[in-house]
Amino acid sequence: MSTVLSAFDGPVVLAPAMNDVMWRNEATQANLQTLSGRGFRVAPPGTGDLACGYEAEGRMAEPEAIVSFVKTVCNSDFAGLRVLVSVGGTEEDLDPVRVITNRSSGRMGFALAETARNHGALVTAVVGRVAIPPPVGVHVVRVRTSAEMALALEEHFAASHVLIMAAAVSDFAPSSVLDHKQKGGAWTVELSRTQDILASLGAVKDQRFIIGFALETENLATNSAAKLAKKNCDLIVVNNPLEEGAAFEHATNSVTIYNTEGEVLSTGLKSKHEIADIILQTARAQDAFRQLAK
Ligand code: CTP
User: What does the pLDDT read at residue 230?
Assistant: First the structure.
């Protein structure tokens, strides 16, 4: 099998099936990560009766599910596309033990990574601080600070067709990091702007398709149009945290999507997976997306 695979350069789908403890084993997950990074697609196992006599995760995906996964990988509009997604929040060091971070859970970014994977894309996720595990079959690069995120994204951007900048990158970082833990008493910290990763990548965009995110509570249309132009994005997805059930820490979200023509789409309150699907469908409908050379 491995000899045949090593001489094959088309898409390969793996359908792992095993005992649940074996499936969760760090070595198994690391091997899957390596394979995902090399372009293998993983049809994730289901939950149900295992040969061991109990119900758990690890059961082979149903044959119908595997067939539909293969069809998606081979036929979808995203087949052959390399999608780079940034996910979660960053941590900026104050001293050896303290950080500045934010409440991003990574749910929206991971939903986008998973949806892009389901549509046949080869997905790399640059992942900061998150509250949930990454989806199977996505190549994960872990980072902590905004500077590390910038480096990892710059490295993978060159080989990507699409960038989805869903991470909540800290806009500020302490101007200097203390070598030793700050002891009690008052403490004044000076913050400086971090690099705007999206604007930097937008400046060297070429033919790539870029989706940016924004957080706005007022003047959505004007602010979004300005941000879209400034960061050279094709779409900008705007969260309004004042809306009930939207943005940070929720399983749901409600976003407004703007394109370069000034067209607007508001999703209303939906699950983050449904929103991810709408974002990718909207991307697919844009002229710039259709012109992507796979
Ligand atoms: N972003 C980035 N690098 C930063 C800050 C943000 O790449 N240092 C990205 C985010 O991932 C997101 C978009 O830029 O895709 C958000 O832009 P930003 O200007 O931070 O928007 P808001 O959060 O809406 O902040 P503000 O309006 O205060 O500028």
Answer: 97
Choose the final residue of a domain: 19, 54, 75.
Answer: 75
Question: Separation of 264 CA from ligand 1 center, angstroms?
Answer: 20
Could you tell me if 228 and 180 lie in one domain? yes
Q: Which ligand 1 atom sits nearest the alpha carbon of residue 194?
A: 8
d(CA 23, CA 44): 10
Q: List all residues whose CB is within 6 A of at least one atom of ligand 1.
A: 146, 165, 167, 169, 171, 194-198, 212-216, 227
Residues taking part in catalysis: 52
Q: What is the pTM of this model?
A: 0.88
Which is it for strands 162-165 and 209-215: parallel, antiparallel or unpaired?
parallel
Q: How far is CA 1 from CA 4, 6, 12, 40, 164, in A?
A: 5, 9, 12, 14, 35
- Is 284 found in the same domain as 181? yes
Ligand 1 atom having least distance to the Cα of 223 = 27
pLDDT, averaged in runs of 10, over the chain (294 residues): 90 94 95 87 91 93 91 82 97 97 95 92 96 91 98 97 98 97 94 98 97 93 94 95 75 93 93 96 95 74
Q: How many domains is the chain partitioned into structurally? A: 2
What domain range includes position 102?
82-293
